[in-house]
Structure formats: structure tokens, C-alpha cells
Amino acid sequence: MATANIPFGGSHGGIEVNPMELSLRELEALTKRFARELAAAGFFSPAIDVLGPDVATSGREMAWMMDVY
């Protein structure tokens, strides 16, 4: 339970990759695949997770993940 008494908690996960070695298209495909796999495993959906950027991510990656919703 979050400190604001809302039913969303933080989550962490990642992929070990150097994004500087990927093209923009490869990075988008990797991000969307990661989101699809999390969703298929029941860890990712609008009902259970609130997206927020983290280290080396921005609104761009969050938008790609939202495309998977």
C-alpha cells in the first residue's frame, strides 16, 4: 500500500543492456517486448501499476510501455 493510501505500489525490473548500442527502433522494440512479457505474467497493467521513469529512461520509454496497455 502506498503512503498516500492508494492501491499502487512501486515496482522494479529491468534489462541489462547498453541503450547507446541500440538503434532507436531496437530500443523501442525491446521496451515494448519487456512490457508485453510483464503484462503476460500478470505484473503490468493499468489496474496494478503506475508507470514512472527511472534511471536512463524518460517519457519516451513510458509512452512505448503505455502503447502495450
Offer a quick outline of the entry.
This protein has helices at 24-40, 59-68.
Your description of this structure?
This protein has 2 helices and no strands. The longest helix is centred in the middle third of the chain and has 17 residues, at 24-40. The chain starts with 23 loop residues before the first helix and ends with a helix. Helix 1 (24-40) packs across helix 2. With 69 residues, the protein is an all-alpha fold.
Assembly type: single chain
User: Over all CA atoms, what is the radius of gyration?
Assistant: 13 Å
Order of helices and strands: HH
**Share of β-strand residues:** under 5%
Could you give the count of β-strands? 0
User: What is the helix content?
Assistant: 25-40%
Structural class of the helices, strands and pairings? mainly alpha
Q: Quick one: biggest sheet? A: none
> How far do the termini sit from each other?
22 Å
Low-pLDDT residue intervals, each spanning 5 or more residues: none
The number of helical segments is 2
Overall pLDDT level: 81
Reconstruct the topology from this structure.
Layout: H1 24-40, H2 59-68
Helix pairs in contact: 1-2
Q: Which descriptors would you attach to this protein?
A:
69 residues, mainly alpha, 2 helices, 39% helix, globular
